[in-house]
Amino acid sequence: MSVDAATVRRIASLARVAVTDGDVDAMVPELNNILGWIEQLSEVDTDGVAPLAAVIPNHQRLRADVVTDGGIRDKVLANAPQAEHGFFAVPKVIE
Amino acid sequence: MADITDLGVAAIRDGFRAGDFSAREVADAFNAAVTAGRALNAFIIETPDHAIAAAAAADRARGAGELLPLSGVPLGIKDLFCTAGYQTTAASNILGGFIPPYESTVTAKLFAAGAGMLGKLNMDQFAMGSSNETSAFGNVISPWRRDDGGNAPLAPGGSSGGSSAAIAARMAPAATGTDTGGSIRQPAAFTGIAGIKPTYGRCSRFGIVAFASSLDQAGAMARNVRDSAILLEAMSGFDPRDSTSLDIPVPRWEDGLSSDLKGKRIGIPKEYRVDAMPAEIDTLWQKGIEWLRDAGAEIVDVSLPHTRYALPTYYIIAPAEASSNLARYDGVRYGLRDLPDGANLQDMYAATRAKGFGPEVKRRILIGTYVLSAGFYDAYYTKAQKVRALIAQDFERAFETVDVLLTPTAPSAAFALGEKSADPLEMYLNDVFTVPASLAGLPAMSVPAGLDAKGLPLGLQIIGRPLDEQGVLNAGLAIEERAGFAARPQNWWAK
Questions:
Q1: Cβ neighbours of A81 in B, within 8 Å
Q2: Which pLDDT band, with edges at 50, 70 and 90, does B192 fall under?
Q3: Does B325 contact chain A (CB < 8 Å)?
Q4: Which of the four, B72, B228, B276, B298, has the lowest number of CB atoms within 10 Å?
Q5: How far is A90 from chain B (nearest CA, A)?
C-alpha cells in the first residue's frame, strides 16, 4: 500500500496537523519509504495467532467508588494558554 | 581524596554515611560540573536549588541518624518525568513552559528516598529518536570523541541522550531514563555507561509523558551495574495510579548481586548476527561469551526466528500508540497555543500541533494515524500485534532452556551528529537489537564492554526472563568485572 498527496492531506487532517504543500511533497516519499519497509510483515504467517494484548500478565484491579481527587480548579487551569472565569477558553465554536 | 564527581551512587552513599564528606559538598561539586558542562547541552533546565535542599535534608538526617537509601545522592532527571514546580517539556515546544502541578511516581519515590535533582535532562522530542537530534532544545553532544584527531561532535544516543552524556561527563552520578524501543540501552552503549530497563510494569508510568504506553518503561542509568541496581530499586514498585503497574514486591537487587554464574545458561541468539555489523562488535560479543563462560555459565545457541520483524512491528505499534497519546496536545489545557487570525477551534488545533511538534514527532503521528485509520487497522495494527505475539513466543521458548540472553546492544558505535538524520529508516535501524525485548516487555540492560578502533565505547546487552532483573544484573556484573572498562572521555568541554 502506498500513500499519495491526497492521502497525506487526509491523515494530516485526521491528526489535526496543519500541512503546507511543501510539507506534503516531502512527506509522500518519506512515508512511502517507511510504509514500504513495514510491508515485509506480510511475509509472516500469522494465521491462528491471537494479537498480543498484554506483554506481562496482569489483572485489572477494582477500587472503591469514592472521590480521590478534585477541588483543585486553579491548579488544573494554571498551565492553560487562556483561562477565564474558572474555565478553559477557546475560540467560539457556535455561531 | 578523589574528585567527588568521579564517585558513583554507591560510593557517594557510603562515603557520605562514613562521614568522608557532606551531602552539601556532593551537591556543590555536581552543580558546578553541570554549570561547567553547558557546552554539551545535556540539561534543559538546571535545578541546583533542588539538589541543595535535598543535600541539606540529608546532612540533617545524618546528624539525626535517620538516613534514607539515597541520602546525599544527586541525580539527573530525564525531561519526560513530570516534576512538580519544575518545567517539564519532553523536549518539545508544544510543552514549552509547562510546569506540572504534580510529581511523577518515579521521581516522587526517588525524592522520598533522599535523592536530589540536579536538573532536567535533554532528550529526543517525546522520546522519539536514537541520537538526541529531535529535541526542540538542540542536540546533546556526546562527551566522547573519536581518537582519530577529528573533533566531529558525536551523538550521545537517544532518546535518553542528556542522561547518557551527563553521566559519562561526570555531571551526574546517575540519572533516570525511559526506554520504549532502546532509549536507555542504546545511549548507555554509546557513552560507556550502564543502563537497565526493567520488566514492563515494574516502574509506574504515572507522570511520565506518554509515548507508546504498551512499551514505555522507566529505568536506571549509571556508571556501573551496582549503581544501576540501587537506583532501579528506588524507582520500582506498585502504583495504583498506573493500571499496568505490577502489584508485586521489589526485590533487593543490590543485596542479590553476584557475578558467580555457576549453573546458569546463557543463550546466544544467532539472528542477532546481522549483515554489515562491524567485525569489532562481533569480536566483542565473542569476548562477552568467554567472560560469561569464565564466570561459570554454560553457553547455549538459541534461535529467535522472528527477530528481523521486530523493527517493522515496532514502527506500527509505537506510532499508533503515539498518535493516540499525543492527541491530548490541543492548545487548550496546557502548553503552546497557536491561534491564527480568524481561526476557528479546528484551525487552532491544527496550527498549534503544526507549530509545536517537531518533524519526527509529526512523522510518527501521521504514520500512526494512517495505520489506525478505517480500512487499514487490521492490515497494519492487528497484524503487528500478531507478529508481536510471535516475537514474545520466541523469547518464551528460548527461556525454556536458558536463563538470560547475550547480544550486542547496538549495531555500531556512536555516529556523528547529522550522519544519519537525513534518512529516518537508517536511524530506526539503530534499535535493531533493543526493540525485540521492548516488544516482549522483558528486562534488559547494556553494560560497557570495550572500545572500538576509534576509541569509542561499545556495549553488550543482557535480556532476561520477565521479572528476572536479578539475573540480568548478575550477568551484567560478571561482564563488568571481566571487561574492566575504565575508559572515560577526555574533558574538553569544561569551562
A1: 331-332, 334-337
A2: very high
A3: no
A4: B276
A5: 7
**B250 touches A: beta carbon within 8 Å:** no
* Residue A90 grid coordinates: 477557546
Residues 3-32 of A with CB under 8 A from B: 3, 7-8, 11-19, 27, 30-31
Residues in CB range of B445: below 8 A, 6 or more apart: B185, B188, B194, B195, B196, B197, B225, B228, B461, B462, B472, B473, B476
Structure letter (DSSP) for residue B382 = I
Reported as a single tens digit per residue, the pLDDT across B272-289 is 998 788 999 999 999 999
How close, in Å, is residue B452 to chain A by CA atoms? Answer: 30
Evaluate whether B380 touches B429 at the Cβ level (below 8 Å). Answer: no
Q: What mean pLDDT do residues B55-65 have?
A: 97
- Respond yes or no: is residue B78 known to be catalytic: yes
Write the pLDDT tens digit of every residue in B367-379. Answer: 999 999 989 999 9
**Taking the domains of chain A in order of start, what are their residue ranges?**
5-43
Global ipTM: 0.95
CA separation, residue A41 to residues B314, B345, B380, B386, B391 (Å): 11, 39, 9, 10, 12
The number of residues making up chain A comes to: 95
For the sheet with B194-197, list strands across it: B43-46, B116-121, B74-78, B174-179, B217-222, B194-197, B444-451, B457-464, B404-408, B265-269, B298-302
Confidence of residue B326 (pLDDT cuts 50, 70, 90): very high
Q: Does A37 touch chain B (CB under 8 A)?
A: yes
User: For residues B368 and B323, is the Cβ–Cβ distance under 8 A?
Assistant: yes
A17–B312 C-beta distance less than 8 A: no
Q: Is residue B248 less than 8 Å (CB to CB) from chain A?
A: no
- Pick the catalytic residue: B159, B245, B259, B446? B159
Q: Tens digit of pLDDT for each residue in B155-180?
A: 999 999 999 999 999 999 999 999 99
Mean pLDDT of chain B: 96
Interchain contact, B387 vs A46, CB within 8 Å: yes
- With CB atoms and an 8 Å threshold, state whether A46 touches B98: no
How high is the pLDDT of residue B1?
Answer: 52
Residues B441, B201: contact at Cβ < 8 Å? Answer: yes
Residue-number span of the structural domain to which B227 is assigned? 1-495
Q: Give the mean pLDDT of B340-355.
A: 96
Give dist(CA B233, CA B161) in Å, integer.
22
**B362 touching A (Cβ < 8 Å):** yes
Query: Quick check: pTM over 0.80?
Result: yes
Indicate the number of domains in chain B. Answer: 1
Cell triple for B426: 537508517
Give me the CATH number covering residue B29: 3.90.1300.10
How crowded is residue B270: how many other Cβ atoms within 10 Å of its Cβ? 12
